[in-house]
Amino acid sequence: SQTIHQWPATLVQPVGSPLSLECTVEGTSNPNLYWYRQAAGRGLQLLFYSVGIGQISSEVPQNLSASRPQDRQFILSSKKLLLSDSGFYLCAWSVYGNQPQHFGDGTRLSIL
Amino acid sequence: DQQVKQNSPSLSVQEGRISILNCDYTNSMFDYFLWYKKYPAEGPTFLISISSIKDKNEDGRFTVFLNKSAKHLSLHIVPSQPGDSAVYFCAARNAGNMLTFGGGTRLMVKP
């Protein structure tokens, strides 16, 4: 069966520091991969998606970037975090067709 | 510009009664709709979905209804159980498997 792992579960970072969040998927090949952010009291906002290695599409302009160095690995990064980057970050995967996206357990990021 | 809206931020229901969660959308190009359930500090879990060519899909206690002319979908949970207490997100998919989420509705089922 397929599983998705995100780490760390929680992270507290100072303003201006770099960020690297990692997501890996097991049990499937060539998945579509997604990064979402849920700000406090709000819905999920799509940040990035990838349909293959090295292929990244950004949905909103921001202080973040994403990379997909391997088929089942998706990384969310920032060179300098802002206060507004605080939130709950979720990675998800899907296969093509009428299949739902499946989410990891998320990373709670707090910027101080 | 919110293409998917859940106008009720919270809903409280007595155990055993029906819970009805609503969702409205504006983009007629959405072809697939999903409901996710989310507990605190966890990722959303897929619950049920419906294709735009259908108007109803049922799975156990959960039924999703789609009214395309009104651009409205709803999730019915009957009977409601305390374990159903969570935040429920509706999502709509466009071509390319991109999901647009509503803001969520917090459901509280009282024993």
List low-confidence stretches of chain B: none
Query: What profile does the largest beta sheet of chain A have?
Result: 7 strands, mixed
Which whole number gives the mean pLDDT of chain B?
Answer: 94
Instruction: State the helix count of chain B.
Output: 0
Distance between the termini of chain B: 38 Å
**Mean pLDDT over all positions of chain A:** 91
The whole-angstrom Rg of chain A is: 13 Å
How large a portion of the residues of chain A is in β-strands, by DSSP E? over 45%
Overview of the molecule:
The complex is a heterodimer of chains A (about 110) and B (about 110). Chain A has about 110 residues and is mainly beta. Chain A contains no helices and eleven strands. In chain A, the strands form two sheets. In chain A, strands 2, 4, 5, 6, 9, 10 and 11 form a seven-stranded mixed beta sheet that branches. Chain A has a four-stranded antiparallel beta sheet with strand order 1-3-8-7, with no helix packed on it. In chain A, strand 4 (about 30-40) and strand 5 form a beta hairpin. Chain A is globular. The model of chain A has no long low-confidence stretch (mean pLDDT about 90). With about 110 residues, chain B is mainly β. Chain B has strands at about 5, 10-15, 20-25, 30-40, 45-50, 55-60, 60-65, 70-75, 85-95, 100, 105-110. Chain B is globular and about 40 Å long.
